[in-house]
Design a protein that fits this description.
The structure is a single chain. This protein has 18 helices and two strands. The chain has 427 residues and is mostly helical. It has one domain. The chain has a two-stranded antiparallel ribbon. The protein is globular.
């Protein structure tokens, strides 16, 4: 049944499209067919994933698999770190059992294990065929050329920049529109390793969290393509490239080699995530200290989070969040943009179940599930400077707009989900 809350999410869809049209390089070339097609693809994917009993059962199975993966990872962590990993056998009496959830021991190790498994699945060609299938889907439904379609599909599972690695030899020949699209989609989605980490963070406050996070990353890809095409319209068609093998860009000598190299890649991601969180959280603490010294305003001290909540509250409401939840939801959107989505998910995971409406928590899971943040600007500049040094000037020129497009893409995805009946998600 279509309710006023569903209609509210239509405001979000319209607002996102209008903002992207306003900053477009050519407002006369709005891709109407692509807009209708992309939104329809997102809608059908959500309905299929949560509405079809068989598929929904599969998503629930994904959730159980994530729980099993997290439990298995904890066995390895406990072996290395002992009671520090939060095992039941603590050497001291527990007064606050909730404090056993330590991010460094419960979330970051999952990234290592998932990266190792992903490398193994790639070596066994299972992930290769899944990526190839999504590439064909994006090519047929959204009119993408072969290599960009493949890179877009790879980005859904591998993350920003990593998806572009698979078509490294084609990057120099991509059109400006295609290059912008790749950067945007990279910021609109997340990697497979972080999907599991986010699901672990939200497991206690969001039913079937793994299914929502997985769905969010998949359906944000069409949104990223659409908004990228609006901001940097498609150039004249160029010759199609045929016969590209995605496995050619990433090869392992054996299963053991895949596990070792995957673990090594995961370690690099863990170090980057850890360092980024430490630095950005510290910087915000410094700014909050300065703002707090100015005294209270309206009965509360000034802070970065409070300011972001005021700025982004209207956008959160447009997505479909009830107005009484809009300030905290807006704050989460701002934290995601400034501090990374990891910090935003951690903050949302710490909000008690009864302190936020289920609808708000579902919508914010989709709105936060993307790499669009200030830190990712640096990651993309560094990555593409290595992958396509001859196009570095173009990347510098467009990367900030790509961040904005990626941020808005997840908001568009959340708005599409907001249009659905709440019973579809149990919210």
């Amino acid at each position: 049944m279509f309710t006023p809350q569903n209609a509210q999410s239509l405001v979000g869809v319209a607002a996102v499209l209008l903002i992207c049209w306003a900053i477009s390089e050519n407002r006369r070339r709005f891709p109407w067919k692509l807009a209708i097609g992309a939104i329809l693809v997102q809608t059908l994917l959500v309905l299929a994933l949560f509405g079809l009993p068989l598929v929904r059962a599969g998503l629930i199975g994904v959730g159980h698999a994530v729980d099993g993966l997290a439990a298995s990872t904890q066995a390895g962590v406990a072996f290395v770190f002992g009671f520090l990993a939060g095992t039941p056998n603590q050497p001291y009496p527990l007064t606050e059992p909730g404090n056993l959830f330590i991010f460094a021991f419960r979330v970051l190790p999952v990234i290592l294990v998932v990266c190792a498994l992903a490398a193994l699945l790639w070596h066994w060609r299972i992930l290769v065929w899944i990526t190839r299938g999504f590439g064909v889907l994006f090519e047929r439904t959204m009119g993408l050329r072969g290599p960009p379609a493949l890179a877009t599909a790879a980005t859904v599972f591998m993350g920003q920049v990593e998806g572009a690695i698979f078509i490294r030899s084609y990057l120099a020949g991509l059109s400006r529109s295609e290059l912008f699209m790749l950067i945007t989609v990279g910021m609109a989605c997340v990697s497979g390793s972080t999907m599991v980490a986010y699901a672990t963070i939200l497991a206690g406050v969001l039913p079937n969290a793994a299914a929502h996070v997985l769905t969010a990353s998949i359906i944000s890809a069409p949104a990223g393509v659409l908004l990228a095409r609006i901001i940097v319209p498609r150039d004249t068609d160029v010759e199609q490239v045929q016969g590209y093998d995605p496995a050619a860009s990433k090869r392992y000598d054996s299963s053991i080699d895949a596990l070792i190299k995957g673990t090594s890649d995961g370690l690099q991601i863990v170090l980057n995530v850890t360092a980024t969180l430490i630095v950005f959280v510290a910087l915000v603490a410094i700014v909050n200290g300065i703002l707090g010294s100015l005294g209270e305003v309206a009965g509360a001290p000034l802070s970065v989070e409070r300011g972001l909540g005021i700025v982004f509250a209207p956008l959160a409401w447009a997505i479909g969040v009830p107005w009484h939840d809009a300030p905290i939801a807006g704050s989460l959107l701002g934290v995601k943009l400034v501090l990374t989505e990891f910090t935003a998910f951690i903050q949302m995971g710490a909000i008690p179940v009864d302190a936020m409406e289920p609808r708000t928590r579902v919508l914010m899971t989709y709105a936060l599930c993307g790499f669009a943040n200030i830190a990712s600007v640096g990651i993309n500049l560094a990555g593409y400077s290595v992958l396509a040094p001859e196009r570095r000037a173009e990347v510098v020129d467009m990367v900030w707009r790509a961040m904005a497009a990626g941020f808005l893409a997840t908001c568009l995805t959340a708005s599409i989900v907001g249009l659905m009946p709440g019973g579809l998600f149990g919210a």
